[in-house]
Amino acid sequence: MIRRFLVPAFLPACLSLSLFAGCSTSNDTAPTAVSAGEGPAPGAPDASVDAGPDAFVEVPVWKETSVQIAISSSGYWEGATGYAKDRADMSDEQLTAVAGLRTIQPRDVPRPADGTSIEVRVTDQDGSVATFRAEEFNVPAAAGALPTIDYDTLKPFLATIQCLAAHDVPSVARTTEAPVDPAGADVSSAVALPADTGCVNGVFVPYQCSDSFLTFDVQAPTTYDIVSGRCLENLSLRIYSNDRTTLLATSVPGSGDACFTLRHTFDVGRYLLVMSKTNAAGCSVDGKTGDTSLRIQKAK
């Protein structure tokens, strides 16, 4: 889950400040006298200092005209996951968090082999999109990379997100062409699918034909679209009553880029969702593998 990202310790105060304004550890240098009417006004920048062509310049992230933020992340252990929310749908906590986002000069530290990389896209009211990167420990990027958001300023927003990453969703392999009947299956591996419409929940799809079980809790009668992202082989989704005896809705299997959207009107209660993958060449051979996604959206 996004909420499980590792969070680096804060930099020492002196080092943090030195990224922007330098740091002094002594005051042995005597002050220089300035005659009245000469020199810069107090607090004004020193025009005699040349920052140079490679000096760090902070880039605005969330502005008064920003209307949406979208995050996609990938980690060795977590797999892929994402989140997208319009300004109008954000909580006060989220609005405060995105207002605190800042860019930073990446630290000169080794890149961990299993760190989490994040892409952040901010859409403006004029339709333009600004793209940033963030990475655990604020590690450096290749030359010409996107502006880097300070991971410490991103973590308050990440803390508001409770979404599934791909490796949070277990899969049960099968050798038959027909998807599993949950009425007689062991569904103890089922995980809860968040109702947050901002979540782009990751789902890992193995080489084999497989089924994944999720529970979905509905607090008020609502019509939802359940949308799949990247299709690997043939994917389908079925919605069952909580007792697993009644099939309420099923999608048309998707393939390639034509993934399914399953619309259903839910009453209050808990439901069981079964996401199934069937290889085009049959379940006796391996098929494509990777991360796909499930997103809950209120029907319009």
Shape by Cα distribution: globular
Which residue ranges are poorly predicted, with pLDDT under 50 across at least 5 consecutive positions? 1-53
- Measured between the Cα atoms of the first and last residue, the distance is 28 Å
Element order: H for helix, E for strand? HEEHEEHEEEEEEEEEE
| Count of helical regions | 3
The structural domain count equals 2
Helix-and-strand structural type: mainly beta
Going across the biggest sheet, name each strand in turn: 4-3-1-2-7-14-9-12
Proportion of beta-strand residues:
25-35%
**CATH topology name of the largest domain:** Jelly Rolls
How many strand units? 14
Query: Nearest-angstrom radius of gyration?
Result: 25 Å
Per CATH, the architecture of the largest domain is: Sandwich
Major beta sheet summary: 8 strands, antiparallel
Helix content: under 10%
CATH class term of the largest domain = Mainly Beta
The overall average pLDDT, rounded, is: 81
Summarize this structure as a short list of keywords or feature phrases:
six-stranded mixed β-sheet, 33% strand, globular, disordered N terminus, 3 helices, 300 residues, mainly beta, Lipoprotein, signal, eight-stranded antiparallel β-sheet, 2 domains, Jelly Rolls
Characterization of the model:
The chain has 300 residues and is mainly beta. It folds into two domains: 57-158; 166-298, Sandwich (Jelly Rolls). It has helices spanning 13-18, 92-99, 151-158, and strands at 66-75, 79-86, 116-124, 129-135, 172-173, 191-192, 199-205, 210-218, 222-228, 234-241, 247-250, 261-266, 269-278, 290-298. The strands form two sheets. Strands 4-3-1-2-7-14-9-12 form an eight-stranded antiparallel β-sheet, with no helix packed on it. Strands 5, 6, 8, 10, 11 and 13 form a six-stranded mixed β-sheet that branches. Helix 2 (92-99) packs antiparallel against helix 3. Residues 1-21 form the signal peptide.
